[in-house]
Amino acid sequence: MRNSQNFWDKNAGRYDRFMRKDAAAYERLYELLRPVVQHKTVLELATGTGLIAKNIVRSADHIEATDASQEMIEQAKQGVKSTKLYFSVQDMFHLPYADESFDVVIVANALHIVPEPERALSEIRRVLKDDGMLVAPTFTHADNAFFGKVKAFFMKLAGFPLHSKWTSADYLSFLRENGWTVRKSTVLKTSFPLTYAECVKSEG
């Protein structure tokens, strides 16, 4: 994890500029998320510079937004005006929260870049209430068109830590195999296909 953390520390200052080209798709993502977090206590993992948290915090009761990168969190804290939003550095594999602490957990654009994503899902299950919602939008790079494959190649050369290269269908299957029922899913058109998934804990 240390190498990937170095990648995000080094790129924290330019992350928001990099994401601007997908601004329209992210507006759609915020629209999907706002009703899910309405009046809820929310944990966001891998918040990066806090783009998602800052855009949905008005709808939520409280958001704990976390990232493993200190530099990303420093960027995220800039310009924060809401008392409902708290940023901190945390390891998504070892969270400091009690069991069943949150109504909603968001882990966006992250499960494909962490080793052992099933371990992250296990820790999410622990801190999420039994009737809670996991929202896990993830880039599904195996669905990349030609130009997406070219971009991904150069990102890999730059040190981008891609660990799981799923198709959208494979990603949804991965969630189901790890104890989640996918209630809603859609693919958003961004620089890379972004598979949006809302999940609840599977019974049994």
Explain what you see.
- 38% of the residues lie in helices and 24% in strands.
- With 204 residues, it is an alpha/beta fold.
- It has a single domain (2-201), classed as Vaccinia Virus protein VP39 (Rossmann fold), CATH 3.40.50.
- Strands 1, 2, 3, 4, 5, 6, 7 and 8 form an eight-stranded mixed β-sheet that branches.
- The radius of gyration is 16 Å and the shape is globular.
- The chain starts with a helix and ends with a strand.
- The model is unreliable at 157-161 (pLDDT under 50).
Question: In summary, what is this structure?
Answer:
The protein is of the alpha/beta class.
Topology (SSEs and partners):
Layout: H1 2-11, H2 15-19, H3 23-37, E1 41-45, H4 51-56, E2 62-67, H5 70-77, E3 85-89, E4 102-107, H6 117-127, E5 128-135, E6 138-139, H7 146-157, H8 168-177, E7 180-188, E8 194-201
* Beta-strand fraction estimate: 15-25%
Name of the CATH homologous superfamily? Vaccinia Virus protein VP39
Largest sheet: 8 strands, mixed
Q: Count the DSSP helices.
A: 8
Name of the CATH class: Alpha Beta
